[in-house]
Specification:
This protein is of the alpha/beta class and 308 residues long. It has one domain: Rossmann fold. It is built from 12 helices and 7 strands. It has helices at 14-28, 35-47, 52-57, 78-85, 106-111, 149-158, 191-200, 216-224, 235-246, 252-261, 267-281, 294-305, and strands spanning 68-72, 89-93, 119-120, 134-140, 160-171, 230-234, 284-291. A 7-stranded mixed beta sheet has the order 3-2-1-4-5-7-6, with helices on both faces. α1 packs antiparallel against α2 (35-47) and α10 (252-261) crosses α11 (267-281). It is globular.
């Protein structure tokens, strides 16, 4: 489990990183995003310290001592580097087939940001790691870019240790918005029509050809197919229920929904409807898939066998 990349003499400083990012986005995202959006994303990327995933996991899943982490679709390595700052062992893989393609790849940039040789060119469908190698596998804005979502999820589950977790965050294509092109989009628009629509707006369909639509319900079905050892925690659902309990919504409409959810008899129906509406309209899908320890998995299988 030692992916190797060429060692470099000196790490990138911030101006060098920014210059490479500008070049990378200009080459790979030409015709996909406007120059204004590309500049904005470069700024966000340079400022990103990689801590957001830790924040999302906080209170839901705890890192074991000496945790080992795999970041699938590691991009320019921001999360992997954040793990190293915390003293955690982390690796990243990246196929770098996004957009138009260019002379510089994300993994080349990543390898110049750390002295650790922990990045490898690979795809999520075929991970170059042994079974049960990692405590945490992360896929942040990745599932919509893979060709076989089921295979990627099964590979992530294969390399996960019992008690480990898979963190998945991706767009929700039930919204009227395409988050890569940053334009209005009809939910689950057929690709043939999508390509015509993009060309009519002067955009390249190169990225659309690489996208597999993702939705909350689809990912849940894929996780269920993994079997009893795996349990799903929908982070958006948990945050909604927590805000209802705390009464911390700022929106009057949301506070009204929470108040009705506490009513007898119809409260459960209101809660179900609100959560279903949230799954349709939420901008992204965000969940944690936990692999139960062996004894918990055996109990789950026993319950299924007796019809509980």
């Amino acid at each position: 489990m030692k992916p190797v990349t060429p060692r470099v003499a000196a790490l990138l400083n911030e101006p060098e990183l920014r210059a490479l990012l500008e070049r990378y986005r200009r080459e790979n995202w030409r015709g996909i995003q406007t120059a204004e959006w590309q500049a904005r994303i470069v700024d966000q990327t340079v400022e990103d310290n990689g801590e957001a995933t830790f924040d999302q996991l906080s209170g839901v899943w705890s890192f074991p001592e000496n945790a080992t982490i795999l970041d699938i679709g590691s991009g320019i390595g921001t999360f992997v580097i954040a793990c190293h700052r915390r003293g955690l062992s982390a690796y990243g893989i990246e196929p770098d087939r996004i957009g138009q393609g260019g002379s510089i790849t994300a993994i080349q940039i990543a390898s110049r940001r750390t002295e650790h040789q922990v990045f490898a060119v690979a795809t999520g469908e075929v991970l170059p790691f042994s079974d049960r190698s990692f405590d945490l596998v992360t896929m942040n804005q990745v599932m919509e870019h893979v060709s076989d979502q089921k295979a990627v999820l099964r590979e992530a589950a294969r390399v996960l240790k019992p008690g480990g977790a898979i963190y998945v965050a991706c767009p929700n294509y039930l919204r009227f918005y395409e988050p890569h092109y940053k334009i209005f989009w009809i939910p689950l628009l057929p690709k043939t029509l999508g390509r015509l629509y993009l060309r009519a707006r002067g955009r390249s369909p190169a990225l659309l050809n690489q996208i597999t639509y993702t939705t909350n319900s689809r990912l849940r079905r894929l996780v269920r197919d993994l079997g009893p050892p795996y349990a799903t925690i929908d982070l958006h659902r948990e945050k909604f229920l927590e805000k209802c309990e705390q009464g911390s919504f700022l929106s009057l409409r949301a506070r009204m929904v929470c108040w009705m959810a506490d009513l007898p008899v119809i409260g459960r129906v209101i809660t179900w409807a609100a959560l279903r509406f949230l799954s349709w309209t939420e901008g992204g899908v965000e969940m944690i898939v936990v692999r139960r320890k062996e004894e918990q998995a055996e109990l789950g299988r026993a319950r299924l066998s007796v019809g509980l």
